[in-house]
Amino acid sequence: MFQVGEVSRTLGINPQTLYFYERIGLIPAPERTAAGYRLFSQSDMERLAFIVQVKGLGLSLDEIKDILALKDGRSLTCQAVHERLCKKLNEIEQQIQQLQALHDQLTPLVNYCAQNLEVTDRECVVLDTVNFSQSMDQFRKESDHE
């Protein structure tokens, strides 16, 4: 049996995380000593290691809870895992697209500022919403002439 500190150190998670996982039902309530200290079994450790592992893959706690429910019911088939991982992969691909769009918006702003680092007699207007499109048009014109 393992105490909270041992579990925490072994798995590299905060003790408060263990209490939280117990409170939201990711792990069953562990046994307790006469003094009320939690004691985790080897099975609890394996479940927690599984949670840490799949959380590291980007799965949310709700997704993990869903997988654990299937696992507990002995119905965690490859098809069930495949469906969930494909859904997660699609979400990640959407996030990548959103981040790429953000990158594409920020890059010209950074370039504009980089070309004007020595200008100290006026305020930078690159983030000025009124002048934003004008600044970008001006930057594009200047870039085209280089």
UniProtKB/TrEMBL annotation:
It comes from the Bacteria. Transmembrane segments: none annotated. Keywords: DNA-binding, Repressor, Transcription, Transcription regulation. InterPro entries: DNA-bd_dom_put_sf, MerR-type_HTH_dom, MerR_fam, Tscrpt_reg_MerR_DNA-bd. Residues 1-70 form the HTH merR-type domain. Pfam families: MerR, MerR-DNA-bind. GO terms for molecular function: DNA binding. This is MerR family DNA-binding protein.
